[in-house]
Amino acid sequence: MVVIILYLLIVFIAVLSVLLYKRYYPVKGVPCVKKEQLSKDDNITILDLRDYNETADGSSSDSLNIPYAYLKRFHQEIPHKKIHAIASDKVELNLSLRFLASKGFEVNSFSLTNCLCDKKKGEINYGV
């Protein structure tokens, strides 16, 4: 009986660890870059992952708006070019970047609406 309880506890902790890792651990190798700092390269797709009601105020016409909740359904509409992701928070960003990487997309940079890049000089290379 004790062995079964211990086994279930270990399985529960393992599942919880995986879920927490995917949500909160930043994706390495994707720098935080302000949208204004991006070069005017035609090979970069600006993907806005924020909700539709959040992007109504400050969305630009050159970005593709697919919120994270709709990403599984509409990821085929994203061109296979380099991607700059715009998200509203860290969790939304981490989940989106992991999903896009699993589908074979190359995310080169990201920015958050309350980005730390505004407060520090240059880029933050660690993720979020």
Rg (C-alpha, Å) = 17 Å
Q: Write down the secondary-structure element order.
A: HEHEHEHE
CATH topology: Oxidized Rhodanese, domain 1
Range of helix content: 25-40%
The tally of beta strands, per DSSP, is: 4
CATH superfamily: Rhodanese-like domain
Low-confidence stretches: none
The helix/strand class is alpha/beta
Strand content: 15-25%
How far apart are the termini?
43 Å
CATH class: Alpha Beta
Mean pLDDT value: 84
Total domain modules: 1
Largest sheet: 4 strands, parallel
CATH architecture type:
3-Layer(aba) Sandwich
- Total helical segments: 4
Output the strand order for the largest sheet: 2-1-3-4
Describe the global form: elongated
GO molecular function: transferase activity
Keywords: Membrane, Transferase, Transmembrane, Transmembrane helix
Protein name: Sulfurtransferase
InterPro entries: Rhodanese-like_dom_sf
